[in-house]
Amino acid sequence: MSGKPGDQKRPVHLPVLLREVITQLDLSPGLIVVDGTVGAGGHSELILQKINTEGTLIGLDRDAMMLGFAAQKLKPESLPAGRCYLRQSSYAELPTVMEELEISAVDRVLLDLGLSSDQLGDEERGFGFESAGELDLRFDTGSGVPAWQLLENLSESDLCEILEVYGEERFSQRIASQIVKQRKSNPVRTAAGLIQAVQQAIPGKALAAARKNPATRVFQALRIAANQELEQLESMLESVLPQVLRPGGRAAIISFHSLEDRLVKQAFKNQKIWKNLTAKPIVATQAEQRVNPRCRTAKLRVAVKT
């Protein structure tokens, strides 16, 4: 898959917690809503219906491929002017997009921080374990450094720290050592190469006991590092959201691992800025989990700006 906006392949991703998100956003006609991770447009399609022709949707995504899918579904060119804007941008750059659109404040912000099924199936960037292309792992291939270059250039200690902090990988030292050791003879450039290096580094007993691919946390850590995901989220929570949301506006954030959820939970505890609506995160029903197993780790937290 090319990852270009005009790519006409049909998306396969299912929007997570769709009913719960729409309920918690408390939408009505005329609202200005930001979908900061618009993806294939699954959440935004229903948002557009709820805010009616009087409202405005701003859909952002760093991934040009996903933005192309969103354009297929939402068809902004067929809507009245000012109804739907799609931009290739990080949600952390929302103020710049709003300035361009001459919008001073918004009513709702949604973030779905998960990796989509379409990205996992993209052969060119290495998100999935079966990917044949280079281990890139960037959402926007026009910025930053691909993961394989990180593996070639980072010191063993820096690589170990990334695996430990971003992946919570208990064998981080062993894996970092293995990757560095084989740089000259067999540098890691692909998903298969990374999986092989991880398998060589991890003790046999741990491999045998593994319930999922032993490289899962390593892929997560490298993807987070390549995209600076936690830095982006911290910037969004600390400065962007309080800046762009009107008083009474709502923020809804879906996270998929503890690092992200911890940041969201902590931010929404700040009573000077937020009224937290979810003391405990909203999770997927058993029925949704059966249909879409990837939603099992999803946690939705919602807060109102005071």
In a few lines, what is going on in this structure?
The protein contains 14 helices and 7 strands. The protein is of the alpha/beta class and about 300 residues long.
Structure write-up:
This protein is α/β, with parallel strands linked by helices and 306 residues long. It contains 14 helices and 7 strands. The protein has helices spanning 18-25, 42-51, 64-74, 94-101, 117-120, 147-153, 156-167, 172-181, 191-201, 204-209, 216-227, 229-244, 258-268, 286-291; strands spanning 32-35, 56-61, 84-88, 106-112, 245-255, 274-276, 299-305. A 7-stranded mixed beta sheet has the order 3-2-1-4-5-7-6, sandwiched between helices. The radius of gyration is 20 Å and the shape is globular.
Strand content: 5-15%
Q: How large is the radius of gyration?
A: 20 Å
User: What is the overall silhouette?
Assistant: globular
**What's the total count of β strands?**
7
The share of residues in helices is 40-55%
Instruction: Give the biggest sheet.
Output: 7 strands, mixed
Task: Detail the poorly predicted runs.
Answer: 1-8
Supply the number of helical segments.
14
Mean pLDDT: 94
From the helix content, strand content and strand pairing, which structural class follows?
alpha/beta
Spatial order of the strands in the main sheet? 3-2-1-4-5-7-6
Order of helices and strands: HEHEHEHEHHHHHHHHEHEHE
How far the N terminus sits from the C terminus, by CA atoms, comes to 44 Å
List its salient traits.
43% helix, 7 strands, single chain, 7-stranded mixed beta sheet, 306 residues, disordered N terminus, alpha/beta, 14 helices
